[in-house]
């Protein structure tokens, strides 16, 4: 059987200033400062064109809303950071994207779905359920009363995009060489990583299961936002074992390193 390999390109679809504490389990960090991070989506292009390209994540809906609704720091967009422009750099139009994998449904990953009229959206069933009715205290002053799920994104997915939504249960091969792997109750209840076969080995797109490769994966210190601490510890260990290249969604280093594709 042919060995199907892919090229992976980071797409910058926005930028945000977020607390450093998101990177590291809270009790281990004294650093309360803000850091500037990119909001990334990813384009998977099949080598030898054995199938169609795949988009992973879609960025946020609009910067103003991130600050107002979710109570977060500055978020920025630029004309060259739109999904349309970022795909255009690779010769693709929005309506040419047929498959989108959503690592999870937070506002900065699931905010661009309505721009993709012909895509099916591959989402873990448990993530869709959690996003529709998140467990959260109404007193929490950030997260928009829905723990960083944007009600508008979820409403769009439930209707009108529902016919395009493809709910999966657990680990699922999406195309030869591309697999979704469920890491339940880590960053979110239904967070999934995307395992991609490349010429440099298995690349793992993390979503936000981990944020800082050195701290979270190499040193095994969980990130600051998680559901189940033990599940998150196990995820760090498993990803370290299984990934040849680890790709977090909020790290400018990977943008620099893999600007020309991985
Ligand atoms: Zn994120």
TrEMBL record:
List the SUPFAM superfamilies hit by this protein, alphabetically. Metallo-hydrolase/oxidoreductase
**Membrane-traversing stretches:** none
The record ties this protein, via CDD domains, to: AHL_lactonase_MBL-fold
Alphabetically, the GO molecular function entries are: hydrolase activity; metal ion binding
Q: Which cofactors must be present for this protein to function?
A: Zn(2+)
Q: Does the keyword tRNA-binding apply?
A: no
> Does the keyword field hold Hydrolase?
yes
Alphabetically ordered keywords of this record: Hydrolase, Metal-binding, Zinc
Limits of the Metallo-beta-lactamase domain: 38-250
**Residues spanning the signal sequence:** none
UniProt-listed InterPro entries: MBL_superfamily_lactonases (IPR051013), Metallo-B-lactamas (IPR001279), RibonucZ/Hydroxyglut_hydro (IPR036866)
Q: Which SMART domains does this UniProt record tie to the protein?
A: Lactamase_B (SM00849)
Which family does this protein fall into?
Answer: Belongs to the metallo-beta-lactamase superfamily.
Protein name in the entry: Glyoxylase, beta-lactamase superfamily II
User: Which species is this UniProt entry from?
Assistant: Thermoflavimicrobium dichotomicum
């Amino acid at each position: 059987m042919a060995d199907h390999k892919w090229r992976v390109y980071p797409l910058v679809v926005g930028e945000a200033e977020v607390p450093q504490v998101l990177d590291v389990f809270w009790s281990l960090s004294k650093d309360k400062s803000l850091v500037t991070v990119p909001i990334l989506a990813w384009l998977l292009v099949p080598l030898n064109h054995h199938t169609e390209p795949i988009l992973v994540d879609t960025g946020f809906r609009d910067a103003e809303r991130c600050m107002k609704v979710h109570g977060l720091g500055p978020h920025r967009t630029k004309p060259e950071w739109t999904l349309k422009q970022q795909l255009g750099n690779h010769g693709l139009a929005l309506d040419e994207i047929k498959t989108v994998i959503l690592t999870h449904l937070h506002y900065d990953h699931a905010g661009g779905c309505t721009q993709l009229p012909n895509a099916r959206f591959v989402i873990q069933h448990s993530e869709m359920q959690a996003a529709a009715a998140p467990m959260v205290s109404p007193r929490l002053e950030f997260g928009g009363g829905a723990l960083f799920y944007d009600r508008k994104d979820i409403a769009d997915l439930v209707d009108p995009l529902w016919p395009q939504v493809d709910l999966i249960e657990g680990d699922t091969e999406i195309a030869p060489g591309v697999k979704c792997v469920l890491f339940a109750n880590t960053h979110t209840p239904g967070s999934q990583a995307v395992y991609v076969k490349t010429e440099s080995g298995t690349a793992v797109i993390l979503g936000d299961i981990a944020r800082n490769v050195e701290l979270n994966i190499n040193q095994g210190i969980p990130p600051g936002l998680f559901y189940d601490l033990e599940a998150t510890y196990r995820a760090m260990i498993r990803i370290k074992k299984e990934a040849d290249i680890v790709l977090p969604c909020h790290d400018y280093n990977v943008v620099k390193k893999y600007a020309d594709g991985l």
